[in-house]
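USER: I would love a firmer grasp of how sequence relates to backbone shape in proteins. This is the protein in question:
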Amino acid sequence: MKEIKDCHKLPLLVLVIYILTSLSSLVEFSDTSHSGGMFFAVFVLQLLIFVIPGMFYCKILGNEGLTSSMIRPFNLSSLFFIIPASLLLFSANALIRLTGIYFSNGSYTPAISSVGVSGTDTVFIILVYCVCPALAEEFIFRGIVLSSYKKYGIACSIIMSSLLFAMLHFSLNDFLLYFVSGIILACVAFVTRSAVPCMVIHLLNNIFTLFFEGYLWQMINAQNNAVLFIFIVGSVVLLCAFVSLSQAERIIYGYALTVSPQSNPEKKDFSTAARDLLVPLLSPAFLLCAIYFALAATSKLH
């Protein structure tokens, strides 16, 4: 019964984060001023929305060690997996955006305009819009959420944490992008047994999106051949996926050599794994998260 109760409590934490994120959009900042005070205010919001609720959740449930099991140093030999996994995330995001824009006849809109931004403001932008979200979101979704769902199996924890992560952004158009990103980051966390690489990859992806992704779209527009770029980026995705899986297999095989046969967990058949996924997926608290996401995402379209 404790496991079933846990799957109800965790989505309530995420629901609180959803609500706080929605309320934060009511805070108005100057569109033209990139003052240190504005960035400090955004930094405080990140603490209030993610870090403090997460720490409070762990404290009241007596799970202070929950995140320490994932937020810990990782083996440097894992870099041979982390690097291609990072490139997989970048290229997969670019492929999803590119195909979405191509088939919808849309155009690329940068998240933040870097025109007229000073060097000091660039540092603040990186700290607030790249570093803070990466640390805060990974603390919640690859730290607390992923660790909490592990009792239902690796596949369930990856899917559930990725769904909740994708819904956080309240975007129907970009839901697939965030869901795929969540799956890749969750796999990185499991293979490396640490959420720290996820924070680094998330940070680098934010930097790429804010400062460098626009140049990719300029290149595509200059060549006026989106299909060719879709093929090239798709090939990069497949190559990075192959290398990442190969390195993940090497690391996991190394883990297996250090575990005695008696301590190996019992393998689950498909029906058992599906049931373990349905329990948290159909929990009332998760359904509340899904309803809130649908309402918030729909309201953004109008």
Notes: The chain has a mean pLDDT of 84. The CA atoms of residues 80 and 146 lie 23 Å apart.
